[in-house]
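In this supplementary section we document a worked example of the pipeline. Step one takes a protein sequence of length 187 as its only input; no multiple sequence alignment statistics are reported here. Step two produces a three-dimensional model, which step three serialises into structure tokens for compact storage. The input and output of this example are shown verbatim.
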Amino acid sequence: MPRPPRCRRVGLDPAVTVFKPRGVPGTRLSAVELPRDELEAIRLADLEGLYQDEAAERMGVSRATFGRLVRSGRAKVADALVSGKMIVFKGGVIAMTDNRRFYCEACGGSFELPHGTGRPEACPACGSNDFHRVDGGPGRRGAGGGRGAGAGRGGGTGGGRRNQARRRRHDGSGRIVRAARAEKEEA
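The serialised model returned by step three reads:
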């Protein structure tokens, strides 16, 4: 018996669940099921143009698994287009990733973007760059909930996992890189 598939992270909840040729009733068409993890793999590879390593990291799978998802998804889409079949988006072992929420001070509007897409250039509604995250994401200082600098320290050496995580930052592409300050401390 094969091992059950791992849960894959998906950042897109499709607005439609069926895609079919125009003018033909769905009851007269044969259907091709495209699991949502294969749809996500196609979206990341073909629409966003990500390399397999980066896209696999965003989905939480290996590069080889990502390649199999893309290959299988593309074959199903090609079959449906060439043969005039209906594509049904459903299934797959997935976990939805939450979107980052932003609030624009200029227009008072809010907008959402998926994780791993970098900081937006401007508010999509008004074009202003006077906006901030409202979901408590990284880089939000002064939001409360913490003990403050130095509070709660037990006099240890400070080399534990918690401090290692603090010395890391994201470079905008979703990868974690060490901060320059942490590299100086280690040298």
